[in-house]
Description:
Structural class: alpha/beta
CATH class: Alpha Beta
Largest sheet: 7 strands, parallel
Shape: globular
CATH superfamily: NAD(P)-binding Rossmann-like Domain
Order of helices and strands: HEHEHEHEHEHEHHHHEHH
Bound molecules: NADP nicotinamide-adenine-dinucleotide phosphate
Amino acid sequence: MWLYLAALVGLYYLVRWHRERQVVSHLRDKYVLITGCGSGFGNLLARQLDMHGLRVLAACRTEKAAEQLRAQSSDRLETVTLDIAKTESITAATQWVKERVGDRGLWGLVNNAGISGPWGRSEWLTKEDFVTTLNVNLLGTIEVTLSLLPLVRKARGRVVNVSSIAGRLSFLGGGYCISKYGVEAFSDSLRRELAPFGVKVAIIEPGSFKTNMTNTERVLQQFQAAWDQARPEIKEIYGEKFLESYLKLLSEHVLPVEKENLSEVTDCMEHALTACHPRTRYSAGWDAKLFYLPMSYMPTFLADAILTWGLPRPAKAL
Length: 318
Ligand SMILES: NC(=O)c1ccc[n+]([C@@H]2O[C@H](COP(=O)([O-])OP(=O)(O)OC[C@H]3O[C@@H](n4cnc5c(N)ncnc54)[C@H](OP(=O)(O)O)[C@@H]3O)[C@@H](O)[C@H]2O)c1
C-alpha cells in the first residue's frame, strides 16, 4: 500500500517536472514590461530576461535608475519612467508600450513595483499611512494591469503579480499585508476571468529577501517614525520600553533572516513568463515554503501563538 502511494506521488512529480520544463517558443520576439526596475527583484529580472534574449521594457520610477539599468544591459532593453501611483504616468507608459509592441501585443506584464512602509503597529499609524501603501501596492498594480490588459490579451500573454508571503499570513501592522492580500484576491479573480482569452495569471510569494525594501535601518526608522507620530495616550499604553524591545527584536532576530539570493525569486518570475505551463502560485525562499506557508494553513489559535511568541508586552497589557 505504501509502495503504491510512493509510486503515485513519484509519478505526480515526474509528470509535473516534465510539464514545467517545456518552454514557449520565439522568446526573442516577446515583449515583457516590468514595473519597479530601479532596484531589487525588478532590476535583477530585467537584466536576467535581457540576458536570456527577451525584449525587456523596464519601467523605473526615476530616470536616474533607468539610466543606470541601461548602462548594465544590452541595447535591446528599453526603459520608461513610470510611477504606478499616478494615472497620467500609467497612461503615458501604456502609450509608449503600445508604440513598441504594435500588433504583437505585450507578452508579459510583471507587476513588481511596491513599497513596504510606513511600518508600525496599526494603532501608531494614520489612515493616510494605510492609503500610501495601498495606493502603490494594490491600486497601482490594479491600474497598471487594467491599462495594459488589452495589449496582453492581444498576445495571449501573462500577468505576473508580485505578492508576498505577507499576502497569505498577516504578521505585521500597517498597510503592507493588507495590500498583498488585495493583490492575491485581484490576481485570483483575474486568473479566472482571463482564462477564456488564453491569458495566464501567476502570483509570486517571496519570503524575506535583502533588498532596499527590507533594509534594517530603513525599517527601524519607519517604526520609529510611526511611534513618534502616535497619539500620547497610545504611547502611554505601549510605553517606551516596548518600542525599545520591539526594535531590538526586529534588528537582531527578524531582519537578519533575509536572504541575499534574489534569483530564487526572479527564477520563479522567469518561469511564470516562459514556461508553457506556468504555476498559479510560486513561493520563493525557505522561510516562505517551510515556515509562513504551512503556518497559514494552521488553526488560527496556533498561528497566533507562534507569531506572538517572544514579542514584548505593552506597558498597560492585561
Ligand atoms: N524584499 C522582500 O523581502 C520582499 C518579500 C515579499 C515581496 N516583496 C515584493 O517584491 C516587490 C519588489 O520589492 P523589492 O524587495 O525588490 O524592493 P525594492 O528594491 O525596494 O524595489 C521596489 C521597486 O519598486 C519601485 N517603486 C516604489 N514605488 C513605486 C511607484 N509608485 N511607482 C513605480 N515604482 C515604484 C522602487 O523604485 P524607487 O526605489 O525609485 O522608489 C523600486 O525600484 C515588491 O512588490 C515587494 O512588495 C519583497
